[in-house]
UniProtKB/TrEMBL annotation, chains A, B:
Residues 1-39 are annotated as: Disordered. Residues 41-95 form the HTH lacI-type domain. CDD domains: HTH_LacI, PBP1_LacI-like. Keywords: DNA-binding, Transcription, Transcription regulation. It holds the Pfam family Peripla_BP_1. InterPro entries: HTH_LacI, Lambda_DNA-bd_dom_sf, Peripla_BP/Lac1_sug-bd_dom, Peripla_BP_I. PROSITE patterns: HTH_LACI_1, HTH_LACI_2. PANTHER family: HTH-TYPE TRANSCRIPTIONAL REGULATOR GALS (PTHR30146:SF109), LACI-RELATED TRANSCRIPTIONAL REPRESSOR (PTHR30146). The keyword Hydrolase does not apply. This is LacI family transcriptional regulator. It comes from the Bacteria. Gene3D superfamilies: 3.40.50.2300, lambda repressor-like DNA-binding domains.
Amino acid sequence: MRAPGAGAHGSADVPPPGAERPAEHLPTTEGTMATTTRRRASISDVARLAQVSVGTVSNVLNRPDRVAPATRDRVLTAITELDFVPNGSARQLRAGTITTAGAIVLDVANPFFTDVARGIEDRLDEAGYTLMLASSDEDPEREARYLRLFEEHGVQGVMVVPATPDLAHLEAARARGLRVVLLDRPSPSDTLSSVAVDDRAGAAAATRHLLGLGHERLAFVNGSHSIRQCADRAAGVRAALAEGGLDPQTALVEITIPSLNADGGQTGTQQVLALNERPTAMLCVNDLTALGALRALRAADVPVPSGMAVVGYDDVAFAGELATPLTSVRQPTHQLGHHAADLLLRPDDAVEHVTFQPELVIRESTTGTG
Amino acid sequence: MRAPGAGAHGSADVPPPGAERPAEHLPTTEGTMATTTRRRASISDVARLAQVSVGTVSNVLNRPDRVAPATRDRVLTAITELDFVPNGSARQLRAGTITTAGAIVLDVANPFFTDVARGIEDRLDEAGYTLMLASSDEDPEREARYLRLFEEHGVQGVMVVPATPDLAHLEAARARGLRVVLLDRPSPSDTLSSVAVDDRAGAAAATRHLLGLGHERLAFVNGSHSIRQCADRAAGVRAALAEGGLDPQTALVEITIPSLNADGGQTGTQQVLALNERPTAMLCVNDLTALGALRALRAADVPVPSGMAVVGYDDVAFAGELATPLTSVRQPTHQLGHHAADLLLRPDDAVEHVTFQPELVIRESTTGTG
DNA sequence: ATGAAAGCGCTAACAG
DNA sequence: CTGTTAGCGCTTTCAT
């Protein structure tokens, strides 16, 4: 699907969260005069030119076989002549439905969400549907605004990563007849379909991997438990420890960092290194955090993995490209979106909750010889 | 703008170009029964319930001051009662216009484009507009299909990263009255506005930086010149060399790699290292390529930058986080999108060509002591 | 301040 | 096979 050598941009990445917009980059402007705007040709213009009725033009458009070849050609010629593009609003008003779906994610510039969006788009494309994509920026008001806008535009349905735990407005939209699929959020509701990734399982798999390698003291550099993913992953780690016969109280140190980026990882790791009974392995809440961890470990001359094993989460593009390739938990982002769209397009409109399993990608940061 | 601690996904990245979709991730499905779908309430339902005419309801919606407070309240109550959401198609059909713009990029999962999209969205949002985003996958047919779809939906205008050098269909759409802004492509046309980044200048700045550091033999690991960005960047490198009094023939070795990713960078760098008169500095067409270069240099025990200076392009998130932080050329992606949207929203609909200047971000891969 | 009615562009009966 | 016509839901004169 994805084009291989996608121009010179094939490699880019996002700026770290909270990065400043680049300073003014001195645009060069080169203006020209304005152009005139004409009224668009309508179906009756075509009918007049082709000397037929509007009904016939409509038939040529929608059921060409019902029209005599000669007439059809005449109409087609008129269409080309006038450069006629049918008015979708009118059609939609008449038909009541539209082949468009909406998606509201937290941030379109976040690769997790755009990979999901890509999955949605690919599935929608198969069905001839278009996607309207928007970012809520975690602002419930923006989310509500876009939801409303999509609904007014008559979309078939909406896939949304909720910005708040409160799902009342989504339930209401659902009751109004709009299809709604929750993204990356297990639905507590019987009326809203949902598609999510099992964060507990991902963290548990990573933990089991470390236990299998013989580690018995772990650190987890995590974000606030008010973030669902962080809480779920912490639960997964604890569950795996218990399952392995270890007491989370003694075998685990959880460090909470304020921002889930490289700086947070570096600071968190320094705290881990300062511990008197130093753990032998670290789990990081995401790969950027792990990157900061690797930086801190290098600065402290702690070899990886022999002095400290490191596991990330997300399996981002650079994870396998680092000086020490990073073991990480990969999430089926594309499938997540694909399935969400699939649910939205289901003819029966049934409610369904789907949970995908993440996959541990093992690399040298846990199994190497460093 | 961008929320700081955007959930646990704040750090993710994209898979490398050409990466396979992850294998089946064993979704867990949990179904429930379907729900009934009711007809949406219309303005006349509201009118009936509120015991007023539809015109009055419309007035409450659009010019509340024209309606007596008592009547207005009655209507408002009815609206709430019926959970009425106005039909945008009907409104648009009547009004003829719509507050939506479209954007067609090559790939929504590519961070360069999503950063641009974010800039577009932010500008559009200021004006109360919505964005419809789509990927052409560099397929001209898909591009044409989306263009048409957007036009049918009556969008104000479309911002597009053209998939082909042929701009005829875009010119035609423009002639039909649709606003069109070219993204990341300097327009050869008087009728189409455009917003682009100066690739020659970016490559030239990187080259001048290296020359200023005393390097006199450079390698450029680049992609095919059939990709506009690659050709432009090569021209920029050559121009800067000439300007510095060096003969590109002797001072520059250009290596062409098939895929602009880490593997390409690694292979290309091996070729550079095998040269008999080895360059002292390398330019890479993007950061992922530079990552591969760093990997190859490490494998060959060549210190960076003392044995080989390295410059990337794009300034992706991890560029500053590597073992050797990477000097790179940052592009004003967000501004690019912001300005494109700005052009689209201009009331005068004038044609304008804007070129943004990239910015060299200097780090240790060129100035360090390694 | 409110109501009545025309019509935006199109589709889908229904006639012929 | 083609024409006629009635709306889809809404906004907007124009009356009252």
